[in-house]
Amino acid sequence: MAEQRLPIVNGDDGQWGDILNQFLQKEHYNTGTNLPANGGHKTITVRAGTTGAGSAPLKFTSGSLMTVAEVGAVEFDTDRLYITQTTGTTRKVIAAFDDASGATGDVYYRNNGGHFTRLPIGTNNYVLTVASGLPTW
């Protein structure tokens, strides 16, 4: 029985070596020099999930936000998804709303908790105004 070992990058021929080399070329950044940047991903391919529970292709676990915002970071904390921009290193909330009950003509506004709130469409001839700092019909 032949000795078992891991495949050698750029050294193994055949299906196993070819698959390994294709993966490394596709998923990993390599300048050909021994720099700290090597090994960082330049592209990532996320396969599609399925309709079954537990098969989402990408999942975030809620946790504390980093103490100091970091450029390019994606964070998830208590039902809010954040991304940090490069200019000004400002953490931004990715806005989302529940469209399950929405209808054409509805208006969404930011409430005092920072969440989108739906104001259902008014009837004909209603005028949108502001009362106590909030939109109303």
UniProtKB/TrEMBL annotation:
It comes from the Bacteria. This is Uncharacterized protein. It comes from Candidatus Microsaccharimonas sossegonensis.
